[in-house]
Amino acid sequence: MGVPTKNWAGNQRCVPTQVHQPRFTDDVAAIVKTAAAAGERVKVIGGAHSFTDTAMTDGHLLSLDLMNQILSVNGTDVTVQAGIRLRDLNDQLFERGLAMPNLGDINVQSIAGATSTATHGTGLAYGNLATTIVGLEIVTGDGTILRADEQHEPELLRVARVGLGALGIVTEVTLRCVPAFNLRAVETIEPLADVIADFGGVMRSTDHVEFYWMPGARRCQVKRNTRTDDPARPQPKLAYVRDKWIGENLAFGAVCRVGRRFPSLAPKVAKLITSGAAERDLVDRSDRIFCSPRHVHFLEMEYGVPFDAIPDAIGRIGRLVASLPFPPLFPIEVRASAADDIPLSTANGRESGWIAVHQYVGAPYEAKFQGVEQIMNDYNARPHWGKMHYQSSLTLAHRYPEWDTFAAWRAKLDPAGTFRNAYVDRVLGQP
Q1: Looking at residues 273-292, what average pLDDT do you find?
Q2: What's the pTM?
Q3: Which of 248, 257, 290, 401 has the most other CB atoms within 10 Å of its CB?
Q4: Structural domain span for residue 299
C-alpha cells in the first residue's frame, strides 16, 4: 500500500497502491511497462502545487524528485531532468550566466509540472513556461521512450509541451534560456478606476505588469517589472524579511485566520490587507523579482480570457463578490501573457488576460468560485489546468481550436489509458 498523498493546499488527497522514486528515464520506462502489462494506472507528482486532482491516483504514483539534474548546456539551450524544482534550476542557471525568460510568482514546482499545466508569468511579449521548451523526452503508455525537438518530431514537441500528464511522462526537457538579467521592480498603489480605464496602456507600459485588487477597495497594487542593465539594488535584508516573510506571510496569515474564524470581521480584515500593501522600488536578478515565498495556504481559481475582455470581467466579478455573504480574504490577481501555438495551452491562438481568485483554506469558497466561473464562461475563458475549476471535456472542447489534434496524439501515445485518472477523464474525456 502506498503512502497517503495530498497537495500543497490540502484539498486533494489520494492513496496510491505504490509510490516510486526513479532516478533515470530507463527506470520510469520499466515502471510504466510493468504497470501497463498489468492493466494498472500511472501518474506523476511534482511539487504538489496543483489545486486540481491532476496528479492524484489509486494506481502507481511516481515522484521525479531524484531526477533533478542539469544534463547539458549548449549555448542558451539547457537540458534538465523533469523533476528539477524551479528554485534549484534558477540558482543553477544564474551560476551559468543564464535565466528563464519568464517565471510565475512561485518557484517550488517541478519544471515538468509547471510546463505540463501551462503555468505562466506575466508580460504581453512573453509566453508561458512551456513555450521555452525546444526539446523533450517522454515515456509513452507502453513504456516506449520518445525524443522530440525542433528538427526531429517537431509536431510531437509542439503538442507534448502542455500535456497534463495524459500523453506520457516527460522525463527530460530542453529549455531555451536567455542571458541572466536584472529586473527593476516598481510597486505602487493606484486608483482601480484609473487602471481599468487604461487597462491596455497599463499592461503594455513595461515588460511585466500585474495588479492586485481587494474587491470593494478603490485602490489596487500595481507591480511593474522592467528589464534593465542597471546593477542589482536589492531590498535590504531586514526590509525583505519585514515585507515578504512577516507582512505577506506571518501577518497576512494571522489576519486571514481572524477573518475565517469571525466572518463579521472579514470586511475589516480585507481593508487591513489592502492598507498594508507596500510601495517598493528595487533592482535584483530576475528570478528573485518574479518569485516570492508563499506560506499562507489558499485555494485558487484562474481563467485566461481574451485580453480586451478583462475590464468588463473585473467589473462583473466585483459586483458578484459584493453580493456574497462571506467577503474575500485574498485579493484578485490580474496578469496578461502572449499567445502561443500549443494545442492545450490556455493561451493557444490568443493574447490572454488572466484573472485569479483565491480564498484562504477553510473559508467558504464554493459560491465565489462557481460564480466567477459562470462569468468566465461568457468570455469563452479557459481555466488554468493546475487550478480549481468545474469544467469538463463537454464544456472545454469548443474553446480549443486544436482539441482534436491533442486527442489524436493521446490516442496514439496512450491507447490503453495507462495515464488516465479522474481528472484526465473529466477534462479530456475518456478515450
Answers
A1: 83
A2: 0.94
A3: 290
A4: 182-383
